[in-house]
Amino acid sequence: MALPVPYCLGEGQTVEWMVHPGYVGSTGDDFNRATDREHELQNLMSPWLRDYLSDLRFELCTWDSIPSYSVESQLHQL
Fold first, then answer.
1. Three-state secondary structure call for residue 54
2. Residue 25: which of 36, 14, 17 has the closest Cα?
3. Could you tell me the CA-to-CA distances from 42 to 34, 38, 73, 78 in Å, in that order?
4. Distance (Å, rounded) from C-alpha 33 to C-alpha 40?
C-alpha cells in the first residue's frame, strides 16, 4: 500500500491521525462490529508503516505526550 507524501510541516507542528483500531465485537453498535477496525489495527502494527513514518521524520506519540495538548495543560487553562 502506498501512502501519499504529506505536506511540509514546520518544526514542532502536530498532525493528528484519527483511527479506531481494535477487534471486531459480537455485541454493541455497528461501529463495534465493523471489520474495518481490525484492518486498521493490522496496518498500524505493520513494520512498513513504522518505517515509512520514520523515513518522513514523524514521531509517534500519545495525545497526552504533546505538551501543548496534554490534559494537564488544558486544565491549567480553565
1. helix
2. 36
3. 14, 6, 33, 39
4. 14
- Sequence-distant (6+) residues with CB within 8 A of 63 are 16, 69, 70
Q: What is the pLDDT along the chain (78 residues), one digit of tens a residue?
A: 555 555 566 666 777 777 888 888 888 788 888 888 899 889 889 999 889 888 888 877 777 777 665 555 555 555
For the chain, the residue count is 78
Which three three-digit cell numbers place residue 21? 483500531
Residue type at 41 in one-letter notation: L
pLDDT of 18? 79
7-33: buried (b, 16+ CB within 10 Å) or exposed (e) per residue?
eeeeeeeeeeeeeeeeeeeeeeeeeee
| CA end-to-end span of the chain | 43
